[in-house]
Amino acid sequence: MSDLSAAPDQFIYIVDDDEALRDSLVWLLESSGHHVRAYESAEAFLGLYNAAMTGCLVLDVRMPGMSGLELFEELTRRHCTLPVIFITGHGDVPMAVSAVKKGAVDFIEKPFSERDMLGLIAECLAAEQQNRGKRQHEAETARRLHHLTQREREVLDLIIAGKLNKQIADVLGISIKTVEVHRARVMEKMEANSLAELVQNVLAAEPGQGR
């Protein structure tokens, strides 16, 4: 099952007060090549949680003390980026559906098959890795934008607005040749291979820019 394995830095965090279920999940996931950490309560996980965690969270809906839903809501307030899968008994399905509407990835009813759980885990890990890469790319784009000069930024903003070189020159009161020089420097500093790539990267890093 190597195709289901997590990336080296991804962990599956299991939060469930049922020791037998917790242990069986740890065995299933570790034997499938995953890195796993298990917690007996929401409070235990929250006490060790940090924003740098990567992977996904498998969370029981109903637990003594802080419930799985309460933990999920607290993590949402902290802008946690871990995908969440809820484990639920039949009577807790409405609560799990509510959690999915609030951003949880999915829920799985007990008793569940190993295949279904592994499939959900694989989907979550792939999505988390992709989203993390996207966030890192956007952060790098923002860093590059910060290093543009004021004039380069003005030229870039007009490029994003769909202006041609002559129009940019008219707006800024500079020559077309100067616009071309600034435009080339913008492309170089932003490490964009095409105008389309430049626009897409900037709009992803600054979503309101194209409005």
Automatic annotation (TrEMBL):
InterPro entries: CheY-like_superfamily, Sig_transdc_resp-reg_C-effctor, Sig_transdc_resp-reg_receiver, Tscrpt_reg_LuxR_C, WH-like_DNA-bd_sf. The keyword DNA-binding applies. Residues 11-125 form the Response regulatory domain. The modification 4-aspartylphosphate is found at residue 60. It comes from the Bacteria. Keywords: DNA-binding, Phosphoprotein, Transcription, Transcription regulation. Residues 141-208 form the HTH luxR-type domain. This is Response regulator. It comes from Aromatoleum diolicum.
